[in-house]
Amino acid sequence: MKKRLLSLLLSLSLLAASVPPAFAAEGYNNFTTIATYAQGQFTDVAADAWYAENVKTAYELGLINGSSANAFTPSGSLTVGEAIKLSAVLHRIYTSGSAAFEASTPWYQTYVSYALQNGLITAGYANYDAAVTRAQFAVILAAALPDEALPVINDVEDGAIPDVSTASLYAASVYQLYRAGVLTGSDTAGSFRPSASIQRAEVAAIVTRMADQSLRRSVSLLRTASVELTSEQLFAQCSPAVFYIVVYDKAGSAIASGSGVFLSESGEAVTNYHVIEGASSAKIRTSEGKVYDVSGVYAYDADLDLARIQVKGSGFHSLPLGDSQNLTTGAAVYAIGSPQGLENTLSNGIISSAHRTIEGMDYIQTTAAISHGSSGGALLNTKGELIGITSAYIEGGQNLNLAIPVRYLEELKTSSLVTLSAIVAESNKVTTTAATYAGFYPAPDFGAYAGVSAYQTDTAKGVTTYAYRASDIKGTANTVISGYLNLLTQNGFVFAGSQEQTGYSSLTYYQQSYTLMLTIGAGKAGVDEYVLISLSNT
């Protein structure tokens, strides 16, 4: 069992007028005119265009050039490489007064290397010629200047940007730029449109605000109290943000399924770690029936039982995060997930314990029904805010269901995107004889993997058998066994068939030198449930 984050709903009042900020940073003195902009230099920039003065200023400061000698292409999309170049140039001018960079092949490599060395980006990108999303641009740009060069001049409350969840990986950068007056939103509601591309005309305005404090803008975005929804309204509003996920092993066979929740329209999502554990790939299906690949994982924690994943695509529905710290026992809640594979199932109930501690972890205990397949789904308050990730239920009782508070999402240490297969290879790899059965390398030691000791060992007629009590396994036995089977595959064992008998089931795997049989049963040797690992030479 395991642990988990925050945000709220929104709406706002908006003011957009120039404001002369009462601050100064020494590095701004380095932004000086280094080029001459001739009237009509770019034939596609009309003198009365809203962005004309920004294009002129950005060109004169050496921040941005045209797409050709006489064209700027204001409606064209900025690429990832161009965004990194802008960040690198801003940073170098601010810190050293120079915008000079050596030429390289490809052209963007010199800027990428500089950005990596100076922490403007934390990892490389797969395609530097792809259009940069507005979310990516915000992250890359915000890193160009130190915090003291981006002081807060605007009142923008957490959760007040309509389409930016505070749980998203780019939220901190977006909110910083809004509060500094560099970004103001793309409509009167202050929407950011994180997964959309950004036009060069917009870029010209934004980078000049970065370089010239007097161009910063005023914007005020305030949360308002969200209203309670009927069950029908809640399902209609929230169910598109909850998806069905199927995970696959290295051979492409489905090994498990569960649920997940979108945190942003650009495909960032959350599910339980145990849903993706041991998987080499995964696909999700939305409530609209569309199927998308999971491109990787940003962060995961087995103890918290949470994983932040990236779904390949954009334009997804997402959920705002609610306050999971100050919950009230007895409050009404709803759960949406895919119990037993029944996609987008809605159930309701109450919070039966706002803070239930089990094995040192804090859970939301609820009567809202969940079962196998609900893992990774949404627990919602009556305002349609995500307050928990449905995770488990206690067998032998009635309506004893558990969800991980969303506040724990902030405990996940985010990193660059890693594929599921890379995680499997790293976490399940057995390379030393210490983690394998004596004399049967590379057969992984079940006891070492599951954290249990064999209660019985026997060798007879060339077959060595190890017996384990299922009750000794740390964690959910089914999950541990599933992970062990995947580990067998990772270490070169091939599935050879299964047997079902009254009281037990057996799975046989073979490798070049050894055969391994895993038997799961009940009532043997006075042990209610047991796992047997039998090994022999092939």
Plain-language structure description:
20% of the residues lie in helices and 25% in strands. The protein contains 11 helices and 18 strands. The longest helix has 17 residues. The N terminus is likely disordered.
Helix content: 10-25%
First and last CA, distance: 38 Å
**Helix run count:** 11
Please mark out the parts with pLDDT under 50 across 5 or more consecutive residues, or reply none: 1-24
- Following the backbone from N to C, one meets helices and strands in this order, namely HHHHHHHEEEHEEEEEEEEEHHEEHEEEE
Strand content: 15-25%
Strand segment tally: 18
How would a textbook summarize the main sheet?
Answer: 6 strands, antiparallel, barrel
Cα-based radius of gyration, to the nearest Å:
28 Å
Q: What topology, given as strand order, has the largest sheet?
A: 1-2-3-6-5-4
Assembly form of the protein: single chain
Overall shape: globular
Mean pLDDT: 87
Which structural category fits the helices and strands? alpha+beta
